[in-house]
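Sequence only, no structure available. Ideas?
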Amino acid sequence: MSDECPTTGFDHAQQNRWPYVHQFLCDKLELGEQDAFDAEFLARFSQEIDSSLEKSKPSESTRKRRKSLFQHLQRTIEHRFKGSTLRQFGSSESGLSLSHGDLDLCLISNTEKPKKILRSLSKTLRNQDMEDIQVIASAKVPIIKFRDERTKIPVDISINNTLALHNTNLLKRYGELDSRIKQCILAIKYWASQRDVCNAAEGTFSSYAWTLIMLQSLQTTTPPVAPNIQSGEERTLLEVDGIEYDLTMSDNPNLLLKEKNSQSVGELIVHFFKQMVLNRPWDNHVIAVRNGKPISRQSKAWKYAKPHASDAVLMGGKTRLGLHSFPVEDPFDHAHDLSRVLRPEGALDIQEEMFRFWIGLKEGKGWEELCEFKHPERRVEIVEKDLFEDLRKLSKEDIGKKVAESESNISELEQRIEALNQERQNNIKISQALRGIFEETSDLRNEHRQIVRGLKPRQQRIQELTQNRDAINQRIGIPLYRIREMLVDVYQNLTGDVDMFQVPSLEREEQQFSWFFELQAMHNAALEADSAHKELTALLKEQKSAVKELKISERKQSEVKAEILKSEPLLADIRTEFSEAKQHDKNANSLKKVIQERRKELRRERREKGRIDAWIRISSNAGANNRPRKGRSKRGKKTGQADWKPKFNKPKIEDVKQRAESGNSLSLMDIDVLLQSGGVSSIQNSKPSQKSKRRADRKKKQNLNLSARRGERSQSKKGRKD
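Reply:
I predicted one. Tokens follow.
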């Protein structure tokens, strides 16, 4: 008996994967009423969300790594592509990123075609030791995906995706408008990521789409939490790639809200799922943030095309989901539906997770339980490693050994790279020299080639003529001159005066006529043989002359090659042939790949050396900070007292007055000293001493040089000039 459901057609595995969707399609799913949730539950729910998001936010070290990686890529790529600009966009720029978020970058370049840029960019990234490089040139916006080898941060670089910069600016404004907006967006992205419905590459919504869906929900609360920032009578139009876009954004979005919404983050999340599950806005509407509320499918002309998600799943194979299944309009590109990436399985996964969340919420489950990781086996824990973890336990001797080893490896790699470069340059020089010989002798070689081309067909014709002539001569056996003599004799016998007493018989006369005709045929054949002989003689003469010219050409080539070889000692023992030049080209290319690998090793070794040097500086500075100052002994430690503490001397009244009269800023200690000496009124009557003047002049001279420099070592004041 088949395990397929007669109503939905789902088999046992599909029913287990989408149990709530299956019940919904069978009209058996109990979604509950739109009752208000308990205030205590909502307060606790909000606290759980805040606590969870605090843990999932990018740490300070993560932000620093992202910033450092962006700056590195910016320097590298902008140097490679002159006149281009690398910009950051997406969640990391808008402040709506989670700890595991990627780095979205946009390369703006008008000098080259996007596909050509991607090919060059992939080579540049490989030279920078990037991992998992994927080039997606067929997308609407060409993109390259990779992962940083050191930080493991995923990076997406799109080409000329300028519209995304405006999208990022829009979301950034929404996030800065109200802290609850940012929290709600991060919450829904966290939930979608945990439940594996936030991956456009696998057929679900992107994080950008979830952001817009949440913004739409916040625009439909009573009163609204998020205004329509894109509203306004004055419109800002901009042409991008030949298409005009409306990029209007309000300068004062706070003024757009007439009433203040006081709902908590927990209440807003509940409102979101209630709207998605019970009201199902995408059945008849399109999510449109720029409108401030969903718009009808009819007005947008985005009808739900078949097949539906459940039907497409049953159809199997690579059946695509019908267009506009869960329509989400891009705020600026109104023709772009963000649901076009959905696959049938992904669409059902989204519905299943929404049903699951709502039913769990009705059962009183907490945030962490509702956002439980769907596939624990896929979880990749990103552990922030201590850069100096392996060095902290090592002694100074071991550190010294590592430094020496690293320096040795660097020196060895540098020498190896230099030797490989030299070998590669030699191959290039040999190839160039060989090609130079070919260029210098090109005219001679063309002449030589033409002579050779004529030799073969001429020789073939000579053989044909020889065979034809010899065959004719062998067949007739009588030379031409003798045939002619015989023809004359026979002709005279046949046409001469008849002697009445010697009249030939009829039989003899017939023999003579027959012989005459035979001689004529032999004469024609002999003429053909003679003509072949004459042509043969001429061809033999031409062939002899061509061979002579060939030898002269070869001698000239040898002389030119010898002259070139005198100035090219590298070619002394090398065959001057095209195959040899090609072989040296192959050698040069192979050496280039080896050099690239060695350079990667060198970069890694230098980074390791820099890490060790940094640890030496840090550890030495830490030790220096714990040592007493030079020239001062460490004070004795009494019972119940701490070690020596620095002494803070009050500034002199003359210095304070001098700073006040010159208009410089005063510290709290300066003001205290000034008040104790008679207040501000004493400044005008006081005159700076000569010593303070000299000190002020000295400080002015010092301030002229604002560059960072190492301070002087402590010296005795004895003999120092003021």
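The chain is about 55% helix and 5% strand.
Hope that gets you unstuck.
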